[in-house]
Amino acid sequence: MPDIQALVNDFLNNLRKRKIEGSQATAKQTAELLRSVISQQRVPYTNQAAALIDAVRTVGEQLIAANPVEIAVGNIVRRVLHSIREEDLSLATAAIAGLGISAESDDDDDFVREDHHILSAAAVAAAARSTLRPPSLQTLLEDMPDSAAVPHTSSSGGDSEGKSKSADKSSRSRKLKHDVIEAVNELIQDIATCHEQIAEQAVEHIHQNEVILTLGSSRTVLEFLCAAKEKKRSFRVFVAEGAPRYQGHLLAKELVARGLQTTVITDSAVFAMISRVNMVIVGAHAVMANGGVIAPVGLNMVALAAQRHAVPFVVLAGSHKLCPLYPHNPEVLLNELRSPSELLDFGDFSDCMDFGSGTGSSLLHVVNPAFDYVPPKLVSLFITDTGGHNPSYMYRLIADYYSADDFVVQRKPATGS
Amino acid sequence: MGAQRKGATRVSEDPEELTRVPLQAILLADSFTTKFRPITLERPKVLLPLVNVPMINYTLAWLESAGVEEVFVFCCAHSKQVIDYLEKSEWLSQPNFTVTMIESHNSVSAGDALRLIYERNVIHGDFVLISGDTVSNMSLTQALKEHKDRRKKDSNAVMTMVIKRSKPSPIAHQSRLGTDELFVAIDPTTKQLLYYEDKIDYSKGTIYLDKSLLTNNSSVSLHNDKQDCYIDICSPEVLSLFTDNFDYQHVRRHFVKGLLLDDIMGYKIFTHEIHSSYAARIDNFRSYDTVSKDIIHRWTYPLVPDVKFFGNSATKLERQGMYRASEVAQSRSAEIGPFTVIGYGTKIGSNTSISNSVIGEGCTIGSNVHIQGSYIWDNVTIEDDCKVSHAIVCDGVTLKFGAILEPGVVLSFKVVVGKQFVVPSYSKVSLLQQPIKQDSDEELEYADCSSAMTNAVDISNGDMTSQILETQHWPSHELGTGGVGHIWSICEGGHEEEWRHSVAPIPSDKVAEAMKDTEDELELAHDGSILPPSGELKPYSNDSSDDNEDSRDESIYFGKEVEATFLRAAHENIEEDLVVLEVNSLRLSYNKEAADCAGAIFFSMMKLALETPHTSVNELLKNVNSVLTKWKKILKFYLPGMDEQIEVILKFEEMCLESAQEFSPLFTKILEYLYDKDIVLEDAILSWEEEKRDAEESDKVFVRQAQPLIQWLREASEEDEEE
Questions:
Q1: Cβ within 8 Å, pair A337-B298
Q2: What is the 3-state secondary structure (H, E, C) of chain A?
Q3: Angle, in degrees to the nearest 10, between helices A48-66 and A71-102
Q4: W2 domain: from which residue to which, for each copy (chain B) (predicted)?
Q5: pLDDT at B551 over 60
Q6: Across A249-263, B47-61, B519-533, B634-648, least confident range
Q7: Which residue of A has its CA nearest to B164?
Q8: pLDDT exceeds 60 at position A414
Q9: Which of A354, B549, B551, B658 is least surrounded by Cβ atoms within 10 Å, i.e. has the fewest?
């Protein structure tokens, strides 16, 4: 336990001091940390799921509070909580069904178990996003008769109930933890491979001789463009430099290194160039439940320009960026104001900030926000690792990934009651 | 064979690389100055809240994020409080970051602190030297790499000083941090520091560079727009240098300047300029204000209030740079302006306006209160209709109904300001009496500081203060009816200097005044061609006059230093050998000869004798006798030959004529003493007499006075010859 606490503290420190940045890195590290939290957690005989949820929730609370700007942290905490619930549910249904059937013959038992296993696997799949399955409305419909049927079979449980129950229980407690860890592993895998999954869809979206515009730098965008290039698509890229961090310069360098025809433009030239552009492809910091996007500063302007010229505005986002909260929620800290030194050199302007003269307050203020909010109506398409989606479809994806109970992680039971 | 050797050397090099010494830092949790008085009488400076977080946390958080693994916190003033604070904080339980406290009660300067740390033998490699009131977000890697690379090439590169560009105010000749304008000369290619001066005499409007500076370096760039960040990367030699030169007290004034002047050892100091990151040290109230505002304006990101970097309560950044912690109770009609921080659990009444200020935790602010540009710490009560502008209000202060604080006021802990009382601007109010003013001599300043600290230690706890409250009867005229506290009379430097270092902006009349001065200066500069405004420095322009002036200045300084050293030795009964060592080091650093030392020491001995109380000439003579007997060993050490002895006599003559005319009637008698005690030999006296033979009549007064002695000596020597 102490080493887990040390790990948590270490990660908390890094988050607080803004040492880890970027949603993929934070998401991956959060998932890995939670996995070790779960594996170290002792599970009592009764109510193991609740114990695990509590453990994850307490750590998660601290993580979210440490840097509320990194929305991905909260997303991963909620996803892990959701998968614990899912696994618990599927195990419970399997166990109850198993109990009911244990009175029957051995051969049947095996068969039915397998059957149930398939069902639980479906639930796992829904959580872990391994398949490109259309809405889980279907699964819900499938589940309904099952859960209704289960009590019936269990009530008809026979006399050998007691014996198999105890055996089942010990295996179940181990199994739950094991399954949850499996699910988290899958989540980590998903985060790691989201770039490739998104990039796979590149050829469907980028066509021959098109002009693509992007702003700033995003690894997802880079991989996406390169994947299209590898598939022998020939196209040109306009890169807006993305002041004040000018990461567009880096992206341009990378693109040129991979043999793409690249043009660098200033952010303010976007509107002038947009008429020549066929598609805008950008990365995001987070995607909110209403389909709005929190993205690097300057993107709202690009989106408006794209709308004016009816250019499709495509946002690439791994599923870890999908946030179940709405942007009007006060818990969501939408922006981060960074140091003004990214904009201007302190030395040159130090005389403008002499508080010793005048009224004691400086006449020069520098505001350096990190993010923009792009409303959903400006977004044409989201490309996630599960395929392309409309902004209005986001709520549906969220229902797949998260349980409604976990939307509010921060509320402590102590303060809630 | 060759290959083998190569392999061997590679092996021997590798472990050096591999056994990486953890990066260490020395954090001085004491500034060894009195600029934050009266607040620092009760609480150490490093624990004063800066935007609601004790200063030391900023420094420690930076050290930790910069990759320092081991920090030695040197606690001196109020060491108990600092240690208690750190023990309660989470700093001691951080992974990969150890904080060790070193306590001392008798260190009076940074020099003493470093000597003590050297004795402990805890520093094993390059270390960062910083004081606990520095705020920075710079990355050390680059500076550290440069330092290490230089060290590999030249082991004399002992220190890398971090500087930052920041334009000084042309009007007040001070930086935005309220410190004096800094002049540095840097070699633009190697970044070596060649000249450092932060105490410029503006009356002359010129600065003097040593001629050798210009001849030895092909290019020199002289800056006045650099700010010293007081972050130094030092090699372990720095500690031993402090130990060798035990009169070094101040890191900049003595150590840096000493090293720059000293061309015997050849130690070098380099600079590292930071551009995009922030670093500043809080030296006085003005820099407290400036740095606070820089933090609120987020220049120190990520060390800003809404990031929980350490020990600060969760704070949210709202529109227009307004930071608000949780549980703030604010009336609907209260108006909170931009760039304001409101601490946890503070209550704000109706129609109150607050702008550009920092309010601490748990404060209660009434209705119709106006607060502007002020720093209000924790648990302060401000009743209705008060006006506070550009003031610092410490913990537990109460402002009664209608009290007004004018700009620049500092209220120390638990002061109560009476009803409708107006505290005049720049006044400092404390429950403690102002310590008796002492001579503002540097050494004494330190001593004064330490003695006051020990006094204050026991007062600092709450019980004592409450006792004071009960027992003492507070005169009502000082702080109005119901007021509690003493208004300190404005001390050293007087009112003139107060506005420079205060939290309040410089008053407009001062600005106008200073503006006029600078205009005059500019005219002056145009009339006499002192320095072409932008042209290059010409190495040989009007050098002769400068040089003379320089050397004369130097010998005056040298004399003063020797005198100070000797007097200290006499008062503290320091052993003669040590005094000799100290004077020797002075002699080296000022590049003087033995004769100069002898003259200076003799001068100070005489002065000592003169200062010892005496009523008659005879007693004075006795004093001289005793002093000479006691310290003749030192004097003799510097008198190996005749020339030096003559120098002593000449010096004595000069004294009798100028500074200490009390001795003039005693000239012969003292000369006799000197002869008796073998300090001055007869040959010296005789050749002195010969030297004086051709002098003007006015100079011959003492030769004539000493004539009987000379006569006697001559006869004696003749007798000797006859025998």
A1: yes
A2: CHHHHHHHHHHHHHHHCCCCCCHHHHHHHHHHHHHHHHHHCCCCCCCHHHHHHHHHHHHHHHHHHHCCCCHHHHHHHHHHHHHHHHHHHHHHHHHHHHHHHHCCCHHHHHHHHHHHHHHHHHHHHHHHCCCCCCCCHHHHHHHHHHHHHHHHHHHCCCCCHHHHHHHHHHHHHHHHHHHHHHHHHHHHHHHHHHHHHHHHCHHHHCCCCCEEEEECCCHHHHHHHHHHHHCCCCCEEEEECCCCCCHHHHHHHHHHHCCCEEEEECHHHHHHHHHHCCEEEEECCEECCCCCEEEECCHHHHHHHHHHCCCCEEEECCHHHECCCCCCCCCCCCCCECCHHHCCCHHHHHHHHCCCCCCCCCCCCCCCECEEEECHHHCCEEEECCEEECHHHHHHHHHHHCCHHHCCCCCCHHHHC
A3: 170
A4: 548-723
A5: no
A6: B519-533
A7: A347
A8: no
A9: B658
* The residue to which tokens 């510097």 are assigned: B638
With the C-alpha atoms ordered A76, A80, A82, A83, is the resulting torsion angle positive or negative? positive
> Hey, is the C-beta of B65 within 8 angstroms of any chain A C-beta?
yes
Q: Which residue of A has its CA nearest to B407?
A: A360
- Chain A interface mutation, best of B137, B176, B224, highest count of A Cβ atoms under 10 Å: B176
Measure in Å the smallest separation between the Cα of A9 and chain B Cα atoms.
8
Could you tell me if B443 and B568 are in contact, meaning their C-beta atoms sit under 8 angstroms apart? yes
Work out the minimum CA distance from A313 to partner chain B, whole angstroms: 30
Residue B296 vs residues A331, A390, B320, B393: alpha-carbon distances, Å? 23, 41, 11, 19
**Minimal Cα–Cα distance from B353 to chain A, Å?**
16
What's the complex ipTM? 0.79
Rounded Cα–Cα distance for residues A224 and A217 (Å): 12
Looking at the complex, report in whole angstroms how far the Cα of residue B471 sits from the nearest Cα belonging to chain A: 40
Chain A interface mutation, best of B179, B180, B308, B388, highest count of A Cβ atoms under 10 Å: B308
CA of A337: which chain B residue's CA is closest?
A: B298
Distance CA B257, CA B560 (A): 17
Percent of chain A at pLDDT exceeding 70? 77
pLDDT of residue A355 exceeding 90, the answer is no
B171/B17: higher pLDDT: B171
Tokens of A116: 């149930």
Distances (CA, A) of B606 to A296, B150, B559: 76, 48, 13
Distance (Å, whole) CA B544 – CA B562: 27
Are residues B308 and A9, on separate chains, in Cβ contact within 8 Å? no
Per DSSP, the three-state class of B723 is coil
Q: CB burial class (10 A; 0-12, 13-18, 19+) of residue B236?
A: middle
Q: Which residue of B has its CA nearest to A7?
A: B95
**Are B506 and A19 a contacting pair at CB < 8 A?**
no
CA B690 to each of CA A188, B464, B646, B684, B694: distance values in angstroms, whole numbers, following the listed order: 99, 72, 11, 10, 8
Q: Taking residues A3-31, what's their average pLDDT?
A: 84
Task: Classify burial at B120, counting beta carbons within 10 Å of its beta carbon; exposed 0-12, middle 13-18, buried 19 or more.
Answer: exposed
Share of chain B above pLDDT 70, in %: 81
Collect all residues of chain B within an 8 Å Cβ-Cβ radius of residue A63. Answer: none
| Number of Cβ pairs < 8 A linking chain A and chain B | 114
pLDDT band at B719 (very low <50, low <70, confident <90, very high): low
Contact B169 A341 (CB under 8 A): no
Distance CA B53, CA B302 (A): 14
Task: Report CA-CA distances (Å) from A82 to A41, A126, A184, A317, B113.
Answer: 17, 11, 10, 20, 57
A164 CB-near residues (< 8 Å, 6+ apart)? A98, A99, A102
